[in-house]
Amino acid sequence: MKLIFSIVHDDDSYTVIEELNNSGYYVTKLCSTGSFLRTGNTTLLIGINDEELEPVLEIIKANSKRRTQYVQTTTHGALPGIFATVGTEVSVGGSTIFVINVEKMEKF
Ligand code: 2BA
């Protein structure tokens, strides 16, 4: 058995969850925050049998889009009290996935 952690963009989470549910997979949705952009994203926990790994990854991949987000950071300028705002583009997603082997799962 495996546990998938899938970090997806908030805008993709509804579709990813719906497609997983429609295919019979159970999903737990956690509200999470990326440390770099400091904006919300969604972490999905999906418990599956080993042979279900590839079909589940395909569903996530098919429904998670890569996006470009614009980030503004403020830095100190050369003189005291002078600040400079710098904009940069960051590519986010489709999904960052971790797969963990599960020793045991029980439901009571
Ligand atoms: P954030 O930490 O908000 O990162 C958003 C995007 O910013 C990342 O997209 C990446 O393109 C860029 N980024 C992140 N850290 C960076 C750094 N130290 N230097 C330069 N660019 C950086 P993704 O790689 O697609 O990641 C999307 C979200 O997935 C992340 O949001 C974070 O919540 C999670 N994530 C990604 N890799 C992770 C990891 N190795 N461990 C835990 N969470 C991870």
Automatic annotation (TrEMBL):
Q: Pfam families annotated for this entry?
A: CdAMP_rec
Name the Gene3D superfamilies for this protein: 3.30.70.120
Origin: domain of life: Bacteria
Q: What is this protein called?
A: Nitrogen regulatory protein P-II
